[in-house]
Amino acid sequence: MRILNLTPHIVRFAYADGYVVAYPPDSAGPARILEMEEKRKSIGVMPVTSKKHLGIAGLPEPEPDVFYIVSSIVGEKVKRPDVISPDTGPSAIRFSDGQIEAVTAWRAWV
């Protein structure tokens, strides 16, 4: 089994026994949502825009025994069984300033 990190950040996974595995960003670059911004209307002189989802870039086709770490927003859009995101909820290990040090679970999007 391989896990490839398609986010721009190092993702650390902490096992229950304290062992931590670091997944550096893959050299292919991050998976991201392609969007187009459209002006919808105005409120007085303030423009109101919306974003149109055009697809996902940087996410390879599924391969046997390969999982892809992506951002939650990408995972939510693609909903594939080989796509996971760091579970940044209450189970995540945080530094004193609140930044995430490591996660202890993955989030599936199917």
Features:
two-stranded antiparallel sheet; mainly beta; 4-stranded mixed β-sheet; 6% helix; single chain; 10 strands; 110 residues
Structure report:
The chain is mainly beta. The protein has one domain. It is 6% helix and 47% strand. The radius of gyration is 17 Å and the shape is globular. The mean pLDDT is 95.
Portion of residues in helices? under 10%
SSE sequence, one letter per element: EEEEEEHEEEE
State the domain count. Answer: 1
- Strand tally is 10
Q: Work out the strand percent.
A: over 45%
Low-pLDDT runs: none
Largest sheet, strands/sense/barrel: 4 strands, mixed
Rg = 17 Å
The general outline is: globular
What is the straight-line distance between the termini?
19 Å
Q: Structural class from helices and strands? A: mainly beta
Strand order of the largest sheet: 1-6-7-10
Number of H/I helices: 1
Averaged pLDDT: 95
Task: Summarize the entry for a quick read.
The protein is mainly beta and 110 residues long. It has one domain (2-108). The protein has 1 helix and 10 strands, in the order ββββββαββββ.
What's the layout of helices and strands?
Layout: E1 2-5, E2 11-14, E3 20-23, E4 32-43, E5 46-57, E6 66-69, H1 72-78, E7 83-86, E8 93-94, E9 100-102, E10 106-108
Parallel strand pairs: 1-6, 6-7
Antiparallel strand pairs: 2-3, 4-5, 7-10, 8-9
